[in-house]
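Lab notes, practical 5.
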Amino acid sequence: MNIFKVNQKLEVQPLSSSLRTKRKPVYATYITELGRDTLSIAVPIFRGRFVTFPRGQRLKAFLPGPTALYTFTTSVVGDLNYPTPQLIIKYPTEIARCQRRRFVRIEVLIPASVELPDAPDNSLLGNVVDLSAGGAKLVMNKSCSPGTVVKLTLLQEPYLETEAQVLRVEPVAGQRSRWEWAVEFIGLTEQERDNIIKFIFAMQREMRRKGLL
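Output from the prediction step:
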């Protein structure tokens, strides 16, 4: 599986046999060089300081691909100081695909407004409860016909204004006058899609830090 590229972002998490530390930190880095049996990655920086690992340190790595999040386990086999501080890690023997959907999804709670085509001056307020770079799930106080193209605005990070097509509408179980809308984004730019992916990746990193993922 050839998913590695120079300058590709990934995150590493040190693995330890100690049971005293339940919350293990996750550090952002990127690939600097591809070897035959190894990968070189930039030494992570945390709070302005380099985070180094000794030889033999086992790491769990998280790598976002275009359609999935991949993980693998590796270990540090060396280091370099020129031209920049780098770690040399073993090329993984096994790579796990964590998400088989087109885009990685994550549960969120982001206030949003929706403009219907027949009432552009009367926005509906609701919440995005599930987000991916391809679409979202909203909880709204009004139903909508599948196939309707609406204008969707996310009112908090990752701040987005886009057209979206309603794919499915279902009543929320146990809640009167509450509806779940599944929508697909229309016409996102590459930058907008990247911003959503970065937001999701950051949320996953925080969840892993807290031991929730």
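Observations recorded by the TA: The domain at 106-196 is CATH 2.40.10.220 (Thrombin, subunit H). Confidence is low (pLDDT under 50) at residues 17-23.
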